[in-house]
Write a structure and sequence with these properties.
mainly alpha, ADP-ribosylglycohydrolase fold, 20 helices
Length: 368
């Protein structure tokens, strides 16, 4: 293998967290400056990413989907595949718990819980859902059919077929990377083919917003950005995003694909370009997750990782993802890999975080 599964698992989760911090920092700097300014300079983006420019009061940055991703990771570690990861999402986001009704079947109980959540939730169901489902993509990466079944549940939250397609696209790309089958030159075409097959198999009702550009159409648009300069790309992106038929949250995911595929072998370049193009924490987060899956944790700049020990970035990691340190996030990724591989004594592994254990994939010959 080009990179170990452990390196790729860590690359996804740690990369996503660092990408979101970078996007949040750059977004804060932009808020402090005049609304109309030239494109961000390369040196500025790199400096802003992990400097002391973030305020000590990190509550100005809303916490959200990183917490859900960590919660789902812990749930998968402790019990494997739950009945529905949607229940974890509802629980983390503060949805009221519905009393059990023995006369309702499980699907009706889930629908009632989801409906109650949608009436009271404050965190919008948007591109962040792709961040929340990163552990699902990791855990089910070896079985694309099962992965699709799991990720199709995203449509149950908001009945948005296109958002479900975008979430599935992220999961599909990560699955390909972990199975050593991701070809950057063919990825967009493969995603389009996969979504077309999904549409043929689906019996769901049509998307309630047919006037909006589909996720595939947004992918096709961002592909054209690779043929122009950065300043021209930003200008085209601003013009495109103002169109009423463009769903901004889907565009965030499409841009993440573009930024990763424009420089697939360079984690730092992909993530910084995402910050230059869009300056959105979710875009940089998903770009980093894709690049981390493809290039492994060793591709993440050491200067970025070492900055996690600083006070301001430390607080952002805790605030955005609910973990205290890089080590804790790495331990979670290794434990998730162990749970996926069917570790014999996972309880023992959980009792000794920080230690290195030999973990092999299932159905692989192991030495005595």
């Amino acid at each position: 293998m080009r990179y170990s599964l452990s390196s790729r698992f860590q690359g996804v989760l740690l990369g996503a967290a660092l990408g979101e911090i970078l996007g949040a920092q750059c977004q804060l700097v932009q808020i402090k400056q005049p609304p109309v300014k030239p494109p961000l300079r390369w040196a500025d983006v790199s400096r802003w990413g992990f400097s002391d420019l973030a305020p000590r009061d990190s509550t100005v940055i809303p916490a959200g989907w990183g917490h859900v991703a960590v919660r789902l990771t812990k749930g998968l570690i402790q019990g494997g595949s739950d009945e529905s990861w949607i229940k974890e999402v509802l629980d983390v986001l503060g949805a009221p718990v519905q009393p059990s009704n023995p006369e309702q079947n499980p699907s009706e109980q889930k629908a009632a819980s989801t409906q109650s959540f949608l009436q009271t939730q404050s965190l919008p169901i948007d591109a962040g859902l792709a961040i929340a489902t990163l552990p699902i993509a990791l855990f089910f990466h070896a079985d694309p059919d099962q992965l699709e079944q799991e990720l199709q549940q995203a449509d149950k939250l908001h009945h948005r077929l296109e958002l479900s397609n975008a979430v599935l696209a992220i999961g599909y790309a990560i699955s390909l990377a972990l199975r050593e089958q991701l070809d950057p030159a063919q990825l967009i075409a493969e995603i389009m083919e996969e979504l077309e097959l999904k549409r043929d198999r689906s019996t769901a009702t049509p998307d309630p917003s047919p006037a909006q550009f589909s996720f595939v159409e947004q992918l096709q648009f961002v592909q054209t950005l690779s043929q122009v300069s950065l300043s021209s790309a930003i200008a085209q992106l601003r013009h495109y995003s103002r169109k009423p038929e463009v769903a901004s949250d889907l565009l965030e995911i499409a841009i993440a694909f573009h930024c990763f595929l424009s420089t697939p072998e360079d984690f730092r370049l992909s993530v910084v370009r995402a910050a230059q193009l869009h300056k959105n924490p979710q875009t940089t987060c998903l770009t980093a997750a894709l690049s981390g899956a493809y290039n492994g944790v060793s591709s993440i700049p050491l200067s970025w990782r070492s900055a996690l020990s600083g006070d301001s970035t430390y607080s952002l990691l805790s605030h955005l993802w609910g973990v205290a340190s890089e080590t804790e996030l790495q331990d979670l990724s290794d434990q998730l890999l162990a749970a996926w591989s069917g570790a014999f004594d996972l309880a023992h592994l959980l009792n000794y975080p920080g230690q290195t254990f030999a973990i092999a994939a299932p159905k692989v010959i192991r030495p005595d």
